[in-house]
Amino acid sequence: MGVLAGLYRMKGSFLLLCLVSFFPGAQSGDQMPSIVTSYVQVKEDTPINEFAFQIETQDPDVPPDPLKYYLSGPKANLFKVDENTGRVTIRNKLDREDDDKGVFTIEISISDGKYRVSKEIQIIISDANDNKPIFQDAPYNENVKENTPLDTVLFQVSATDADSGLAAVIKYHIDDASPTNGLQHFSINENTGQVKLIKNLNFNGLSTFYRLRINATDGGGPSYYNVTEFLSSTAFAFITVVDVPDLDPSFLNTPYTASVNEHSKVGLPVFKVSAIDKDTGINDVITYSIEATNPPDLFEISASDGIISVKSDIDREALLDIDAEVILTVKATEENPSILGFRANSSTQVKITINDINDNKPKFYNCDMEPCEETSIFTANIFEHSSKNLPVDGLKIKAKDMDARENGKFELHLEGPDKNAFTVLPSVAYSESEIQILVKNPDDVDYEKSTSMVVQIVAKDPNKETNCCSTATVTIQIKDINDWSPKFPEATYHLEINEHSANGTTVATIIAFDPDTMDVGKIRYRLLPDNILKYFDVDPTTGRVFVANSKLIDREVMDLHSPTLQARDMANNTGTTVLMIKLKDINDHKPKFNKDYVEYIEENSSLRIHVQATDQDEPPNSDIVYGIEKSHYSDNFTIDPTSGWLQNKGPIDRESMRTEDHGKINLTVKATDGGEIPESDSVSVIINVDDINDNGPKFRKDSYKFSVEEGKKAEFVGSVRAVDSDQTNNYNRISFRISSGSFGQFIIQTFIDQPEGYIGNITVDPDIELDYESTTKTFHLTVEAMDLGTGVDSVRVEVNVLDVNDERPKFIQKGPFFVDENSNIVDVGSFDAQDLDTNHSLIYELVSSKCRCNESLGLQPCEEDWFTLEPNGKILLNREFVVDYEKCVEVVLEAQVVDVLTQKGENNSETTGTVVIYINDVNDNPPVFEKTDNFYVVVSETASVGSEIASVSATDRDSGRNRHMTFSIAAVNFVDDVTNITSNKELVFKVVSTQEDDKFVGKIQNNEALNIDVKGKYLVTVVARNTEMPNLFSETKLEILTVDKSLKVELLFSKPEAQVKAEASLITMLLTSATQSKVEVVKIRSKSGSSETRASTEAIMEVYFVYANGTALNSDSAEIILSNSKERFRLQTEYGLKDIGGTEVVEKQVDPVLFVLLGLVAGLIIVLAVMSTTLVCTRRSYRTKLKAAKAMNSAAMMGTGVDQKNGPVVPGTNKYTMDGANPVLNLNMDTATDLGFDEEGSNTDRLSLNSLDYNIDMVMSDKDNMPMMRIQEEDEVEYEDKPYVEPLSEALAQRGKKRDTNSPKLTFNNPAFSSTTDL
Predict the structure, then answer these.
(1) If residue 769 lies in a helix (H) or strand (E), which one and from where to where?
(2) Distance CA 27, CA 24 (A)
(3) The pTM is what?
(4) Which of 319, 946, 1089, 1251 is buried deepest, with most CB atoms within 10 A?
(5) Is there a cis peptide before residue 1208, judged by omega within 30 degrees of 0?
(6) pLDDT tens digit string along 314-336?
């Protein structure tokens, strides 16, 4: 039995080895993995080592094989990939703004250990705000003239930002300035960067240099951490203020003073002035000149250097009238004209003091009269015996030395015959002094000895030896002394004068006599005592006595005055006389009335009054005559001139009197006396005339016409006036009423009128509002005036109702208006409204601006204000923005209209008005090709003439006919892959233009059949051009690769041709999914060469599997990929895919080795048949069942092995007994299994074989302990839900039960292996 068991083991092993070698399905099922990722988007500011993206892959193997991930390409150094997980992180900092503008490709490679697959994916770097604005041409240096006008654009800064979107929108502002007041002088436009002057510059008064720090800040953008960041940069602008000649020159170190000795030599420099041009940036040449000088021609100035020098001889003493100080007015003039057109200049004064030298001797001057005169002869006088040191009179003498200070010193002494009687003062003097001669010896001054005396005054300059002295001779007259008193001729004088004589009236002239000669004509008079002076006074020199106060010399008070007249001579000797002055009477009192006269009478009655006056004078001055002074009413009365009786001439009518007199007559009665100059007095006689009601009221006008505004309650309409001639309120009081025509709309109120009469104020009833729009616009009123008696008067009053602005304006629908995009036309249209009021002024205000943009259905607030609304309703184009049809196609403006003259109620329209503005499209956008791979593959065999080879699509942002376009081919070049030669193939392709929905499609068709035997690519330049003017265009380049017939694959289906054709689209879709290629079906035909029965049930589909890179699958590659794909199950079960064949094989030379291989295969088949028979014979052995039980146990135990993947390994089987299908066992195949033959065996296979041996040994050792069990024989059966009777079948059934009940069924019947015996 041991030999037999060993034989069985050898036979089993040999059989399995043969099966593994013979069947391709028994080899490894690895399939090629694929890369799913085509493009990724990565934020530009993703930090280094942060996650960038995940490489997505597909591996048809089950389970998927571990993959290794790799990156390559010029930009691969930006990323690093975890080679085990495919997780890509950032290696180096990304920069969207580099040469590729943030879009580039890298090559991704994956490897499962057997296959290495590569694919270029597109990396799109999304922008982050990581670039600061960069100033162009910074720093900015500008020279600006100081007189540059305000609002002048000085320069413009410009910054660029490499970012996109809002992050590239730059705003400018000035951060700071140096000096800081530069912020007051300059401003910057935040949008354009234009720097303007906003405050005047001044080169000299302000800074000559400004430094501005200008900030450029972008609009911000999201960062990696979803925080909006704003970036900015600064640049400096250096502004140099350029001076212009606008200032006068300025003298330095003023004020100027200098000095020079008199009589200095001509040409001697005295002083130098210096001036500069205050326009320091100009520094013009200065010339000097003397404009004025108080004494002329003493000095001159150098025009070039400002040196002042002596021009002529200078005598200080000739300049004493100006205090020896010469004042020069020096002018500095710029050489070139200023901006005002003339040469700027300025002046200053130079004061030059003339220094003295001792060149003059003292001299004498007579100063009796100004100016003093030089002389040497003088006279004086003095009373005899005058006191010692008393100066002589009449001597006004001065001594002068024209020199100054010490040079002007001189000494004085007396000479002559009478020098001992007098002395001179002072003895020493400087420059100038008054000289006095004093009495030294009074006894020598005697009138009886000598009536005159002579002395000589000598003045000597002590500092000079020659020409040092001067002499003056003085003759002194001696005067006599007075010793006599004055005397009047009479002791008493009797005098008369009228009382109240005028002031200054002479009473008498009385003269006294004095024998002293010195008193002749020099006697003085006065009246004594002093209290008499208020009545009379005397001329002190003539003795004329006169009236001092006319009012006080009143005879009725005192009729006699007796003053004393005194005379006084020059020595105060006096003499007196008495004056007896009698006053004579004059008419100095006027008549006087003793009381006032007031009388009361009724109008139309008589009056008699006695008027009396008295006079204090004596007759005839006291005789009185009466009279009435002329007045308004004086002619109505008469008076007796002697007795004073007053009476009226006729009846007195109160209404004929003036209103302002209020019934009062005021007469003035005059009483006149009989004096030579008559005096008079007056008195008022008031006569009150009482009124009686003898008159009725009367309107001042025959009719009245007024107007009143509508809608105002209690509104004043107008006034009517009436008067009653009666003079008292009791009889002239008037009341008004509206007797007719009011219709309850008006009321009238009575008031006192000024200056007389009454006024009736007509107003609208407080409960009534007049309506201009009603039928009655004019009212005709009858107004009556009535006094307290029976008097009545009436008048017609017309009242017109005026329109008031109380209606709200209403919009008049206008539009729509049409505006071309990009238009420069300012006037678009206007709003219009109407107002029913006759007087209105409408102002329009924009409420909102809404746009229909980007083909949206609704209106949204406009992002840009394309239009503005003027107050007059005009709609104007806003030049700050550009109207763009591609942004918005419709603008709806909503406005409000306001009546500024509205007087009542709301002044705006009840509803807003709208105007629709449609934006007309113009052709301003070129066609834009839609993004494609620009890479096409064409199968030469299928490309018949007129076939669609490729297609391009383009859109145009314009609308209507402006977006229409046609496609054309500009160039076609063919690059041969074999020879690498490029040739021109312009006639190969054409393009057909069509429109699909909102885009235009250009279908590339071939004009001629393509050569199916060549490989290469066509480079096709396609142009899309607008049909409307201007014919804007754009172009794109396509690569069309050709696939030759050697890559055609034939697929065999177990279905008729008609059914395969009907299901061709679904089959193509599955083939595309399985191969990830473009499937080009060439032909579907019945299988040729088969029997009629088979021909009707089988069909062949000829296809090409083409990839976008121009490669294609041959039949072998297609078979491998399809066999390992998950789509093969559906292709086989649902659509009957039976075989994957190739193209026709070219006959080759027979290889002898082939015959050897065929022999070996035949031998293996024979061995297989023998082994199969042997296994059938031994399958009923109980040992086999024991082996199966132990095999299941071993399979469970080996589940954790390192080579075990998806389930227990059943001894006696291979790895295809797991999830996949083993064709031998009529089970599902593992999709991860390669259909090819592996040269190396699987570890799992080896483990399975070893385990089989192990189980056999184990069973043999335990055979005595196992109970014998009868194994039921079974024939060949299909795989169904039947109980398994074989050990291996039972084990496989147990394995299958471990799967989840919801797992999909993994088995199918493979007709190709239906005849295989189940192991």
Answers:
(1) none
(2) 6
(3) 0.33
(4) 1251
(5) no
(6) 988 888 888 888 999 999 999 89
